[in-house]
Design goal:
The complex is a heterotrimer of chains A (about 325), B (about 260) and C (about 725). By secondary structure, chain B is of the alpha/beta class. Helices cover about 30% and strands about 30% of the residues of chain B. Classes of the chains: A alpha/beta (about 325), B alpha/beta (about 260), C mainly alpha (about 725).
Chain lengths: ~325, ~260, ~725
């Protein structure tokens, strides 16, 4: 118990999220280092069947309740708090997501657990849990120790491969009922709003020409569209572009947008912040064009050139067209 | 509806981040601190709600040195009150937990219906201030929201999930909402109005306890991300780069 | 026969008995009454200017103002800037002045003897003087008719787009033509009568027909028709009365017709701004509570309201306006008309006080005001000296205060406010372009230099400009110029920030710059950016603090001096055929046209001028903040039109610019048109660098600091 690692499993519309598997992979590594067990905590309504997917864990605690059908920060917190207080794991992992962070911080503050966020990788040394967190837009890596007796860690993607935890299995399943009255929560889930699917699904497009803040003005996106067309691909973007309304949300690559694994990703004027890179779990070739030579994207890109996007794009389009004809 | 907006001052990412070799932490000597971008969105959303439903907006921050201009700018934009908490150790940077504690102390008697905070800040290492604050005040929290509307006595926040999926979550105030994006980009207010606010408005000053490290992990060091591995840089002007890229794409079979 | 008698003007010739009384009534009662009504109506029309408009001190330096009135209102030098409409208008206007003068002389000639009980009937219109008088009037009648012919051809056949082709203008043209023609006919009947019976005008004989050639020609109609003298005399009386009636109607309708420009336009030239140079904007109106700018008509000055009434709708401003070319909602002419219609119309815009309706947005749409590049072509072209740009900026100040601007623009303003530049980059990176320059560029905050080079945003941060900026440093060194820069102490000078309407931000930037400048020791300031030049020269040191303002020059002037004095030696004459584009803020705003041309000639280039050169230069479209705004309103780019103008020259190989925004815009335009192989866009410095290159080997060590060498100072720093 004192050396157990718990993982908060996130589900969205009846599916276990990819982040959950990343966390299971991380949790497994930590539990191994500590010599403890890995427990998955699964909250929801009629979710017992999902336990089979959580084979990476040694055991699964299921809290099944109608109020937990869809993520409701308050209800989920109430359900989790009692469990965590009793179970007192050494580390409790949450995702750096819309359903993870709310819960992690609420739980930690309520029960007085310290928090470390956003952690990418963990190491156990001398019985201590060490972590590396990515901060300041990806420009700084912070190293630290996760204190006990129970430490909450918010986990960001990139440090572990979710595939490593996707094996099925039959972990031991415990059922628990929430002690608090979940119906008394002042928060209520109302409804989902479906995304607009009329536009292209960029996660299925192998060639993406992606624009970021460095594109300058809205009009310059036209040039990017022409390049995308010449290459036989589509335009996508980072968050600032979508926030300004210059491209629809369907084109957003990143944490709150789509996750893509293209053959070619041309990043124009994109700095490569963690939120954006979350949307790029993999690629074959990533070409970064950014005049800031210290942009984090250059650490991961395949090729880079510190030239002006607005100068390069028309020339590249021209040459691509010439090659194709 | 009475709304409070905490503003966190964070390092400006436009600048170079330097590590102080003696402390192993961020070198703050020449660092420029700016209001957290998502907190500016929170302020914008608060002002939008005030314009729609009436009420007041108060902005509150820790005195980390050069915060007055940002507070007066908030007032010029339409905030009714600006509060500055002064205390020991703030300029060196405080953890999200410490900040949430100080805010909870300052806001607990304010009878605020809503507290809007940015859902995260670029230098958070121990969680999101808004979520921690909510727990300390014992009120609900909904984070990662892109829209906040008031309906009857309730508030409906729209939470953003990956892939463009959204969820409407209803909550009874008082509550803390974590803002990912306001309905409109944060407004610009002309300098003459900021100057006017500087002359006429007053910033309320409060005393805060010394900032502690409780609740946070122990940070043992900081370093820039690995260089060395990384992109193969292509030299030359735009024309040369375009030429070489076409060659690379041909090699990869993309062209 | 009345030989030996000297001819003289006969007042009211041919009027007897009841007619005599009638014409006297016309001349001394009816027409004066009409004139009084004219003045009353005119006064009531223009009363709104000072009733609604804010005060503005424009009664100073009366001598200069009268001079302006004569130069622009009478001689009409600005009207003559364009040949066809210029000649057309002065033929009509000068003739009118002459006729007016002629009437005054005739009145003096006829009435003074009566008033002073003189023996003679005439004072001056006797003998040869009289003949000359008639000759001049006759000639101007002809010139007038030629002018009218030109006008009719222009308005009804050519129909240029810039004119308002509506019936009130036809009324004006028809009215003045009828007046003159009836005058001519009246005279011709008199000539016909005295030709038949010379005693009707004692002293007249056929030999004197030369003195009124046109009248005489027309008189042949009556003579040829075989009309008798009584019939001719009857015609004469009728024509006289018709002529007088037309004059009366002219007076009565003047204030409410297009004829009113005869009064408002000269007034506008009289009250045109004297107190500040063209390049300086008026200070902003800031009201209680920080409200800024002109949102209502009552926020404009009386002079700005007069501008609307003085506009003759000639459309020259519109033709010259790049925003109009781009098919944006802006036409400077239409803007002036909106102000006029707002003031005199029925929408209540002329109300004053707190409940006056908002004019900006209702009377004139927001995009109209945002489309302006502040190039000043409208002001340069306007024959009646309307100051469009000042009014546009005043209204923009209001729009910004109300947050009614592009999100993109407001983002850039935020960048200016936080970082002091439009690129959103750290102020600490301002001097990164100097990184590889050896020896290190002097930091003028730490050591004195002859020249303070105010580099500017674009030259410091824009990728396109890095090379030219480094070249400039190199060429300055070659020329032995002792210069330094402000490094990260420099902020955007604020010229365009001011013209966007963010007055407070401009003041903040200016204050920061002035604080840094104050601590530096230098003899003059030099910049490569005309926008920077304009505001430093005309706006920074305007109020004066006892100290004399520093000399501020553009690098073209510096290069010109260096080449002429021999400090910069040409090692290779380039021999290119080039065309030079006059930057708006260097040329039109500050009158600096020739230095760059001399430089080009000195380095062996042959200049081929574009049709629109010097003060007619066509703006690239980037000024007034437009380079940071949403381009939705722009349907065709002025910069591309300008490049096509250069291409049409046929012989020009290089398009030479001397402004960083021009370099950016025109390189882009050439690419878009696909003319990279036909026309190379070059900054002046690139050609100078090329032409002076080998001279480097002879150059001495450059930092001619007072004591010690720069290297010592660097060690200390």
């Amino acid at each position: 118990m004192a050396q157990d690692v718990w993982v908060n499993i996130e589900t969205l519309r009846g599916e276990v999220t990819e982040t959950s598997y990343t966390m299971l992979a991380a949790g497994k590594a930590i539990a191994k280092g500590l010599g403890g067990s890995l427990r998955a905590v699964l909250l929801g309504n009629n979710v017992k069947g999902l336990a089979g997917k959580l084979g990476a864990a040694d055991s699964v605690t299921v809290v099944d309740h109608p109020a937990l059908a869809d993520f409701n920060p308050e209800a989920h917190l109430l359900a989790l708090a009692d469990l965590a207080k009793k179970g007192a794991p050494r580390a409790f992992l949450f995702g750096q997501t819309a359903s993870g962070t709310d819960l992690a911080c609420g739980l930690a503050a309520k029960l007085g657990f310290p928090v470390a966020s956003p952690c990418r990788t963990f190491k156990v040394e001398g019985g201590e849990i060490l972590f590396e967190a990515v901060t300041c837009g990806g420009k700084i890596i912070a190293e630290g120790k996760l204190p006990g007796p129970t430490g909450v860690a918010i986990v960001m993607p990139g440090g572990y491969k979710p595939e490593e935890a996707m094996q099925g299995g039959s972990p031991k399943v415990d059922e628990a009922s929430p002690e608090s009255d979940l119906g008394a929560a002042r928060t209520r889930f109302r409804a989902y709003i479906e995304p607009d699917t009329s536009d292209v699904d960029i996660s299925k497009v192998p060639i993406l020409v992606s624009v970021g803040r460095g594109i300058g003005q809205k009009e310059n996106i036209e040039a990017a569209k022409e390049l995308a067309a010449a290459l036989g691909g589509e335009v996508s973007s980072s968050r600032p572009i979508v926030d300004q309304g210059w491209l629809p949300t369907s084109r957003l690559v990143g944490k709150s947008g789509k996750a893509v694994k293209p053959k070619l990703y041309l990043a124009l004027g994109i700095s490569g912040s963690p939120e954006h890179m979350e949307g790029l779990p993999g690629w074959e070739t990533l070409v970064a064009i950014n005049t800031d030579q210290k942009a984090p994207i250059y650490d991961v890109a395949t090729y880079g050139a510190a030239v002006d996007v607005l100068e390069l794009v028309p020339k590249l389009t021209e040459k691509v067209r010439a090659t194709k004809s | 509806m009475n709304i409070a907006v905490p503003i966190k001052f964070v390092p400006d990412l436009v600048e170079e981040m330097e590590i102080d070799s003696s402390t192993g932490k961020l070198d703050r000597t020449f660092m420029r601190l700016v209001p957290n971008e998502l907190d500016e969105h929170a302020l914008e959303q608060a002002l939008i709600l005030k314009e729609r439903h009436g009420g007041t907006v108060a902005v509150i921050t820790l005195d980390t040195g050069d915060v007055d201009e940002a507070l007066f700018t908030a007032v010029a934009k339409g905030a009714d009150r600006a509060i500055k908490i002064a205390g020991e150790g703030y300029a060196e940077g405080v953890t999200s937990h410490a900040y949430a504690d100080l805010l909870a102390e300052a806001l607990k008697n304010g009878s605020y219906d809503l507290i809007l905070a940015g859902t995260q800040a670029v230098d958070d290492l121990d969680g999101s201030v808004g979520a921690l604050l909510a727990a300390k005040l014992g009120i609900p929290y909904v984070g990662y929201t892109v829209k906040v509307v008031a309906e009857g006595g309730k508030v409906v926040a729209t939470k953003e999930y990956p892939g463009g999926l959204l969820a409407e979550i209803e909550v009874n105030p008082p509550a803390v909402i974590g803002i990912q994006a306001a309905e409109k980009p944060p407004r610009y207010v002309v300098t003459s109005l900021v100057m006017d606010a500087m002359k006429k408005a007053k910033i309320d000053e409060a005393e805060g306890a010394a900032a502690g490290l409780e609740g946070a992990a122990e940070i043992t060091g900081m370093r820039p991300p690995e260089a060395g591995k990384g992109a193969e840089m292509i030299d030359g002007d735009a024309n040369a780069v375009a030429e070489k890229l076409v060659g690379i794409l041909k090699e990869k079979g993309i062209l | 026969m009345t030989e030996g008698q000297v001819i003289a003007r006969i007042n009211f010739w041919g009027m007897h008995g009841a007619l005599d009384t009638l014409v006297h009534a016309f001349t001394y009662v009816i027409l004066p009454l009409c004139a009084i009504i004219l003045l009353v109506r005119f006064f009531r029309h223009i009363r709104l200017w000072w009733k609604v408009g804010r005060p503005d001190r424009r009664w100073d330096r009366l001598g200069t103002r009268v001079g302006r009135l004569i130069q622009y209102g009478v001689v009409q030098t600005k009207v003559l800037r364009q040949r066809y409409p210029g000649v057309m208008h002065v033929l009509i206007a000068w003739s009118f002045f002459v006729f007016f003068l002629g009437t005054v002389i005739a009145t003096i000639d006829a009435d003074v003897p009566i008033v002073f009980g003189m023996e003679s009937d005439n004072v001056v219109l006797i003998g040869d003087t009289y003949l000359l008088y008639k000759f001049v009037l006759d000639m101007f009648t002809l010139l007038f008719l030629v002018g009218v012919g030109l006008a009719a051809f222009r308005r009804y056949v050519q129909k240029p787009e810039r004119l308002t082709l509506s019936s009130p203008f036809t009324y004006m043209l028809a009215m003045i033509t009828l007046i003159v023609i009836t005058g001519l006919l009246t005279e011709s009947t008199r000539l016909a009568a005295i030709a038949r019976e010379p005693e009707l005008q004692p002293g007249w004989h056929p030999g004197l027909a030369w003195s009124t050639p046109i009248g005489w020609l027309v008189a042949q109609i009556w003579l040829g028709a075989g009309m008798g003298v009584p019939a001719i005399e009857a015609f004469h009386s009728v024509l006289w009365i018709v002529h007088a009636c037309l004059v009366g109607i002219f007076f009565l309708t003047l204030p409410v017709s297009k004829l009113v420009h005869m009064l408002t336009s000269p007034l506008n030239t009289f009250f045109s701004k004297l107190d500040r140079p063209v390049g300086q904007l008026a200070p902003a109106l800031v009201q209680e509570g920080g409200a800024a700018g002109a949102g209502k008509l009552s926020d404009l000055t009386w002079k700005q309201l007069m501008d609307g009434d003085a506009c003759t709708e000639c459309g020259r401003c519109q033709d010259a306006c790049p925003a109009h070319y781009a098919k944006t909602p802006l036409s400077p002419k239409e803007l002036m008309i909106s102000i006029r219609e707002g003031l005199h119309g029925k929408n209540g815009f002329s109300k004053t006080g707190a409940d006056a309706p908002e004019f900006v947005g209702q009377g004139v749409a927001d995009p109209v005001l945002w489309s302006c590049t502040t190039c000043g072509s409208c002001v340069a072209e306007c024959p009646v000296l309307i100051e469009h740009v000042d009014s546009i900026v005043d209204m923009r100040r209001y729009l910004l205060y109300k947050q009614r601007a592009d999100a993109e623009l407001m983002t850039v303003l935020g960048s200016f406010r936080r970082y002091g530049n439009s690129f959103g980059q750290s102020d600490r990176k301002r001097a990164v372009w100097t990184k590889d320059i050896v020896p290190k560029v002097k930091d003028i905050r730490k050591e004195p230099a002859d020249t303070l080079w105010f580099v500017g945003d674009y030259a410091s941060y824009s990728q396109t400009l890095i090379e030219p900026t480094q070249m400039t440093a190199r060429v300055f060194r070659r020329a032995g110029i002792d210069f330094g820069i402000l490094y990260d102490g420099e902020r955007n000078a604020g010229n365009d920030v001011r013209r966007i309407g963010e007055e407070g931000l401009f003041e903040m930037l200016a204050m920061k710059n002035k604080q840094v400048l104050e601590k530096c020791e230098f003899k003059e300031i030099v910049t490569t950016d005309p926008h920077t030049l304009n505001t430093l020269k005309n706006e920074y040191f305007a109020k004066g603090n006892g100290k004399p303002a520093p000399m501020i020059r553009h690098y073209s002037e510096v290069l010109d001096d260096a080449l002429r004095s021999g400090k910069l030696k040409v090692s290779r004459k380039l021999g290119y055929a080039v065309t030079y584009h006059d930057p708006c803020y260097l040329g039109r705003y500050n009158g600096i046209y020739e230095p760059a041309r001399r430089v080009l000639e000195a380095i062996g280039c042959r200049i081929v001028e574009m049709p629109r050169n010097r003060s007619s230069g066509f703006c690239c479209g980037a000024g007034g903040g437009r380079i940071w705004m949403n381009e939705e309103v722009v349907k065709q780019r002025p910069s591309e039109d300008r490049i096509r103008e250069a291409l049409a020259l046929g012989s020009a190989e290089c398009f030479v610019v001397a402004c960083p925004k021009d370099l950016t815009m025109y390189r882009d335009a050439v690419k878009t048109i696909g003319a990279e192989n036909k026309l190379r866009v070059k900054d002046l410095i690139e050609l100078v660098d090329e032409a002076t290159a080998e001279a480097e080997t002879a150059a001495p060590a450059v930092e001619t600091a007072a004591a010690g060498s720069t290297l010592d100072k660097e060690a200390d720093a």
